[in-house]
From TrEMBL:
This is Sucrose-6-phosphate hydrolase. It is found in: Cytoplasm. It is an enzyme of class 3 (hydrolase). Enables the bacterium to metabolize sucrose as a sole carbon source. It comes from Planococcus chinensis. Pathway: Glycan biosynthesis; sucrose metabolism.
Length: 489
């Protein structure tokens, strides 16, 4: 959906309440509205921003264009929660109404300092020729949750050697200094990450580029995030411009990480292993992490992608955030688990255990549109086994293990309304051993599948008819035993 440039930059306070109410009516009439994911009241949501824990609550912000499902003038929208499950819509946090963010309050992050939350973000501006000029900006949230922007930006030029694509600072504290990684495009049109530092969050210094082993890896790295976990240094980022390679890099843009030694801030160096995609599904981008008071590293991503149209667009809204996941390190890789708090959503429970052979079976109580399903398999000699869900007469979404290829496959060829079909309708990845567990969270228009206790995750939007609610277990070319538990949500 393309909008005229002038329309994309209309501010919410220039629109009448009547028009907003009509937009919200249209949004609420959509049968694909989610039930347990963070989604916008109207318009478009993209990156999660400023995830933090402050005064006993989790605060999570996101990129928001209120007036329609397009990437127009971006605001920061504020949600908060005491339990990571029930989120309260607080409202607009940052308005793009200053000289340094006139064309969008773009992505950024949060850190607590002196009893307040400092939000470091990119102010996007455009000049009379519509050329971008990014500023790095600070807004401060006090204990009453009042958010005030500084009067001036804290870094208002792009360092030599980089283009105007210089944005998305992710801040952390190390000793008595603050550091931030920031996404950048070099003037030779390759992506990288730069390092900023500050003694007080108000005066920022450009330290230089972070030296990684990925010299030419896409044309831009968006939304970097650096953290340490189990004595490893991890740099998460969303590179744009990678060509597909076998099963890898199938989406328009990627999101993943490199892991290795802790960052060397003096030398501005990160020694690391290969780039690994964080998610194997169709819709996952711009993940953002925080560490909570219990020491958990939590991650939330945008369940969507830039430059792709989605079926809910006609209803005036697009996208949602993923469920919060806890990260850990397993076998040299990041492992992701849905946070246990989500169990509070569990209602009616259904259970089944069976052995199936060359067949597809439905079970009483196993159907639905919004649910959690945990299925443990004891693989026998089946060549393929898995689950069809949100299935009906002509529709189904399939997750299966192909024992011949040793791969797990998510197939949304028949999932309902098509999304980004130019990028294919199957996603797969290799699994060491076999698939012994699928843990799925199905909402009205999405699925998140944690494979083998978080070894791999497939995150995807799906847009089936509400009547497509069957769950079918199947095995082909042999048998598999399984036990499954389902909770309605
Ligand atoms: C990633 C991104 C960021 C930018 C934001 C604007 O999806 O393009 O780089 O800050 O979205 O909404």
């Amino acid at each position: 959906m393309e909008l005229l440039r002038e329309k994309k930059y209309i501010r919410i306070d220039q629109v009448s309440q009547k028009d907003i109410d009509m937009l919200i009516l249209k949004v609420n009439s959509c049968s694909w509205r989610q039930t347990f994911h963070i989604q916008p009241v109207s318009g478009l949501l993209n990156d999660p921003n400023g995830f933090c824990f402050y005064n006993g609550e989790y605060h999570l912000f996101y990129q928001w264009h209120p007036l329609g499902p397009v990437h127009g003038l971006k605001y920061w929208y504020h949600t908060k929660s005491t339990d990571l499950v029930n989120w309260e819509n607080v409202g607009i946090a940052i308005q793009p109404d200053d000289y340094f963010d006139s064309h969008g309050a773009y992505s950024g992050s949060a850190v607590e300092h002196d009893g307040k939350i400092y939000l470091l973000y990119t102010g996007n501006t455009r000049d009379e020729n519509f050329e971008r000029h990014p500023h790095q900006c600070i807004a401060i949230m006090d204990a009453q949750e009042k958010i005030t922007k500084l009067e001036k930006s804290v870094l208002d030029n792009v360092p030599a050697g980089y283009t105007e694509h210089f944005r998305d600072p992710k801040v952390w504290k190390e000793g008595d200094r603050f550091y931030a990684v920031i996404g950048a495009q070099r003037t030779d049109k390759t992506g990288g990450v730069c390092l900023l530092s500050s003694p007080n969050l108000l005066d920022w210094k450009f330290e230089g580029e972070l030296d990684t082993e990925l010299d030419s890896f896409g044309f831009m790295w968006e939304c970097p995030d650096y953290f340490e976990i189990e004595n490893q240094g991890v740099l998460v980022f969303s590179p744009q411009g990678l060509e597909p390679e076998g099963d890898l890099y199938q989406n328009i843009y990627q999101a993943g990480y490199v892991m290795g030694k802790k960052i060397d801030l003096q030398r501005k160096e990160l020694v690391h292993g290969n780039f690994i995609e964080l998610d194997r599904g169709f819709d996952f981008y711009a993940p953002h992490t925080m560490v909570d008071p219990t020491g958990r590293r939590l991650m939330v991503g945008w369940m969507g992608l830039p430059e792709i149209e989605y079926p809910s667009d006609i209803n005036g809204w697009a996208h949602c955030l993923t469920l919060p996941r806890e990260l850990s390190v397993k076998d040299g890789k990041l492992n992701q688990k849905p946070v246990p708090e989500l169990q509070a959503l569990r209602k009616e429970k259904g259970e089944v255990a069976d052995r199936i052979k060359d067949e597809k079976k439905l079970y009483d109580g196993f159907a639905g549109v919004t649910y959690e399903l945990e299925c443990e398999f004891e693989p026998g000699d089946a060549l393929e086994y898995g689950i069809e869900f949100r299935a009906g007469e002509d529709e189904k979404t399939v997750i299966k293990y192909d024992a011949v290829q040793g791969k797990i496959i998510l197939d949304r060829t028949l999932s309902g309304e098509m999304i980004g079909s130019a990028y294919g309708t199957e996603r797969k990845c290799r699994i060491e051993g076999n698939v012994y567990k699928l843990h799925m969270f199905v909402d009205s228009s999405s699925v998140e599948i944690f494979v083998n206790d978080g070894e791999e995750v497939f995150t995807s939007r799906i847009f089936p008819d509400r009547k497509s609610n069957e769950i079918r277990f199947f095995a082909t070319g042999g048998s598999v035993a399984f036990k499954a538990v389902k909770w309605d949500y």
